[in-house]
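so my prof wants the structure for this chain in the tokens format not the other one, which i didnt know existed until like an hour ago. anyway here's the sequence
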Amino acid sequence: MGQIYPVKSEMPHRILIVDDEKNTREGLRWALESHADEVTIAEDGEKALLLLGDHPADLVISDLKMPKMDGMELLQHVKEEYPESEFVILTGHGTVETAVEAMKLGAFDYLMKPVNLEELGLLIKRVFEQRELRRENERLRAEVNERYGFENIVGNSAGMQKVFQMVRQVAPTRASVLVQGDTGTGKELVARAIHYNSPRKNKPFVAVNCGALTQSLLESELFGHEKGAFTGAVKQRAGRFEAADRGTIFLDEIGETSPEFQVKLLRVLQEQEFERVGGHTPVKVDVRVIAATNRDLKKEVDEGRFREDLYYRLNVVRIDLPPLRERRDDVALLVHHFLQEFGREHGRTLTISPRAMQMLQNHEWPGNVRQLRTVMESVCILTPGKEIGPSNLPDEIRDEPDKGPHLRLAVGMTVKDAERELIRATLAENKGNKAKAARILGLGRKTLYRKLEEYEIESDRNTS
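here's what i got, hopefully its the right format
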């Protein structure tokens, strides 16, 4: 008869056995009890539907021939009302053709009677493994969509609001996009946001750093090569364009490419085809191209370093990312965003003092958002207490000349949070002198003390 081995899973498994023969259904229930978290039985299709209404099953194993409602009719009801439930048909030798027809209607597979338990065990293992894989793919897809949704690109400044608007408008189209901005401004994040908010979101997103490869390596990487195309090409290899078929390819640092390569890339954009290195047969692809550069590509065209025809092919829509020094109002939003991200990652809950925030907002950030992110990760790891103060910041930020006191409040902050920041900033500016801070804020001293306790604010000095 064989033996069934349980499948390990974090998700509960429910199996429903439907058969009008008592010995068959009871025998299968006994055999499968160690294989699933819950095994129920029904003697016909009508009772099976009543049970499914109370407790939907992951897998229905049903005989084909039964009174009142046979297996084919039950299959149709299950697929219509419980599409997530898999269905396996049990059939005799005379009804194999009907069982094959059942698979065309959505049954996962069929088994011959009398049932071989070992064969049934392998089939159930396959059913549950595919369900787990599908759930994992759905989870990953949801995670990717959440991570790369354009609404999660942080920024309230006018420059970033313009970026958001352009991403919303261009994402549903198939137009080529050129993203320009300084190093570290988030060009790839914008490219991913366009892809994952487009009709191509379930197809590949392939990123290539053109500036990190020589011309010959770049051509082989993007277009692939035929066997024997060059020394070491021992077999045919598909390139990144083929990998991105029906999806999106992101060509970072496109301004670093050679004129010879630009000619070949222009053909791909015009004809949607290319030849592998060493090959002569055209390879057709359907790929959306998003290119990025930290150079002024129009200036590169004017000075003869970049092909004008390729520039206009890439520059159907251009998105300019402002550097962080031009969007200082976004620094506080980014800081709190990174505090949450790294807090979750490292199991910490940190706040930041108004003085430390002021220093971060005053910094020029030559490395833009990427540099700020690195600084905040380091600070989150190395700060010993629960609040990030000036002493916890890197020397190059802490030692910058003071540009004067000011308070920045983020759009979307609650009145309570704004009051808390105002009180903390006023205390910090007055070196913890509560009496002076109360006068400046227009509060009675008792009111100030109550709010300090309510907001859990500790001043740098205990001056009353």
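also thought this was worth mentioning. The domain at 328-454 is CATH 1.10.8.60 (Helicase, Ruva Protein; domain 3).
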